[in-house]
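User: quick one, sequence for these tokens?
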């Protein structure tokens, strides 16, 4: 929800300032509804944000807003893929995204599965969370056939997760993705 992002930045401001004193922010993406993206342009105008609006997808949980009394270690494997969409093929890309989301709904290993179109319609971003790396790999094999006919080109794949899950994903996929190991402090509310 759009009101949560500025509040989060305000709450995390000192931490973010400390981080930016030692590292350069090279990319910031906001993925949400079209209305949320529009509502955040003014409050985030000082940051180099790329906006992506949701075009298809689902999640099997509903995040709870506000302060949380309990947290659990985040153990999901997140996969982020970026597809280049040729001009004039935007509708075909969205149709392929809708088919993939529908096909993934029956998989009990899927936690979240969403597609977002960049504001200029040149990139389709896919973010999916899975209970295991093996679950992602099996679903990925099925999804490849749906992408093939859509004229999209896979440009980048990232796998994020706990060290053991990332190692399992790397064993399955080799060097086809970038791998990011989640810090032990990551949590899910």
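Assistant:
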């Amino acid at each position: 929800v759009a009101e949560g992002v500025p509040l989060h930045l305000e709450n995390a401001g000192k931490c973010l300032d400390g981080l930016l004193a030692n590292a350069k922010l090279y990319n910031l993406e906001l993925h949400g509804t079209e209305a949320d993206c529009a509502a955040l342009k003014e409050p985030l105008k000082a940051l180099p944000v790329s906006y992506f609006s949701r075009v298809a997808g689902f999640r099997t949980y509903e995040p709870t807003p506000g302060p949380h009394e309990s947290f659990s270690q985040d153990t999901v494997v997140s996969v982020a893929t970026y597809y280049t969409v040729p001009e004039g093929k935007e509708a075909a890309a969205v149709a392929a995204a809708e088919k993939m989301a529908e096909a993934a709904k029956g998989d009990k290993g899927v936690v979240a599965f969403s597609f977002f179109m960049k504001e200029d319609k040149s990139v389709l971003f896919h973010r999916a969370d899975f209970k295991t790396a093996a679950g992602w790999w099996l679903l990925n094999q099925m999804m490849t056939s749906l992408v093939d006919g859509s004229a999209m080109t896979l440009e980048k794949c990232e796998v994020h997760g706990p060290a053991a899950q990332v190692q399992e994903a790397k064993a399955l996929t080799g060097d086809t993705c970038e791998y990011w190991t989640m810090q032990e402090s990551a949590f899910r509310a």
